[in-house]
Amino acid sequence: MRIIIYTGKGGTGKTVTSCSTAIKLAEHNHKTLVISSDPAHTLGDAFKISNIGYEMQKILSNLEALQIDPVTEMKKQFDTILSYMASVFSARGIDETLAYEIAMLPGMTQLFSLLKIEELVKLKSFDAIVIDMPASGEALRYLYFPKLVGSIGRKLTGLAGMFGGVARMFQPLSQVSMPSKGVLQSEVDLIDRLQYLSEIIRNSNITSLRLVANPDTFSIENAKRALMSASLFGINVDLAVINKIMPRQSSDQYYANWAEFQQGKVEEAKANFYPLPLREVFLHDTELRGMEMLTKNGELLFGNEDPGKIYYQGKAFNFLTEGNSLQMKVKVPFTERDDFDLERYGDQLTIKVRSSVGYIVNIIPLPSATLGMKLAKAKLHGDELNVMFEKSM
Ligand SMILES: Nc1ncnc2c1ncn2[C@@H]1O[C@H](COP(=O)(O)OP(=O)(O)OP(=O)(O)O)[C@@H](O)[C@H]1O
Ligand SMILES: [Mg+2]
HEC profile for 5-56? Predict the structure, then answer.
């Protein structure tokens, strides 16, 4: 089975790329499901099919689509925990409706979407699942959530079990009843399910994260950051897609300027996503929507290839913590011989390299752990930049 997840900045084309990939997968005889947890009915908009809803909907003989509704999932699966959490808050004198609202802490919706994905993965009725992630780095964080909750949650549950339940944690705050066996059991189930999903997501033979960016500084930087976090969490990224590139053959100076600027950004993207393979997709002459255009777009993206292929396996970033220092190794597309300039601005390193299209800036996002550290040394070995950070005393 293959799980392909598209992520990237808002509006870059995650949804259309997911749909085009799914169509192509189906053409290659994979039984395919494309899912989205966007609050809006984005899949329906993309396929131009109005009734794609919270039930699975057949699009082609080999392709189904599903819009996940986190609220429904939450009610269906974890009402026990939620009612308990709500009771904790209402015991504090908070109105019950509001208590439910508060119990749906930020991130809960993403969490319930993940649980739905876990359910679908376990079903084993699809060869390929394409996931269209909602925009924002936050959303991506919840992809790593299983691992975090898995390890933290287990400890908490263990403790809770030992001391008689989660209520102990809230007891100093309010007069709350102990959680029932049901609540504790749902909590254990939830953690087990997240743990299972986490293993699937971190298995590079099953799951690939793919980055979608446009030929602009902001979305490239955003995607580069996603690549760094994915490396930190052990999720394999196998492809970068640069979407909405303006065609070059224009006689109008205005468009010619844009095309030239974007060409520079594409070169920059190649440096930024190195060593990932990169796909370039042109801006179609009208809004990309509907079966026909999505199919054509899949053709542009993958040609005759099977998009289920694993395009790359390996880590673009490597981290090693040792005492007071953190060593980061990043693959970069230049060598010692190149004329480059390295500078740190807060949470990023930039490398400026002279190239045939002028300077190319390679942005290297730094993990939060380096914020209190100073850059001690940086060295290039072959195509690997070796950066050492040290805790400032
Ligand atoms: N290559 C392209 N050519 C023409 N139009 C495109 C292309 N790629 C995307 N679009 C259009 O850009 C808009 C945004 O695309 P899409 O909804 O797939 O982005 P998204 O990353 O999923 O956005 P969001 O972050 O809001 O979920 C849509 O109107 C889509 O039709
Ligand atoms: Mg979208």
Answer: EEEECCCCCHHHHHHHHHHHHHHCCCCEEEEECCCCCHHHHHHCCCCCCCCC
Q: How far is the CA of 7 from the centre of ligand 2 (A)?
A: 9
Q: Which of 270, 302, 334 is the last residue of a domain?
A: 302
Q: C-alpha angle 50/51/56, rounded to 5°?
A: 140
Q: What percent of the chain has pLDDT over 90?
A: 39
Assess whether 186 and 232 both reside in one domain: yes
145 C-alpha to center of ligand 2: Å?
Answer: 21
CATH number, domain with residue 342: 2.60.40.790
Binned at pLDDT 50, 70 and 90, residue 162 comes out as very low
Q: Which domain holds residue 56?
A: 2-71+106-302
Question: For residue 287, which ligand has an atom nearest its CA?
Answer: 1
For residue 368, pLDDT over 50 is answered with: yes
Ligand located closest to 213 CA = 1
In a domain, 87, yes or no: no
- Tokens representing 363 are 């942005």
251 and 368 both lie in a single domain: no
Cβ(21) – ligand 1 distance below 6 Å: no
Quote the ligand 2 centre to 331 CA distance (angstroms).
30
Record the pTM. 0.85
Residues 282 and 371 in one domain: no
How do residues 121-144 score in pLDDT, each as one tens digit? 999 999 999 999 876 556 566 666
Ligand 1 mutation pick, 287, 293, 296, max ligand atoms within 8 A of CB: 287
Tens digits of residue pLDDT in 11-34: 999 999 999 999 999 999 999 999
Residues 253, 347 within the same domain:
no
Ligand 1: nearest atom to the Cα of 245:
1
Q: Is 60 helix (H, G, I), strand (E, B) or coil?
A: strand
Separation of CA 11 and ligand 2 centre (Å): 7
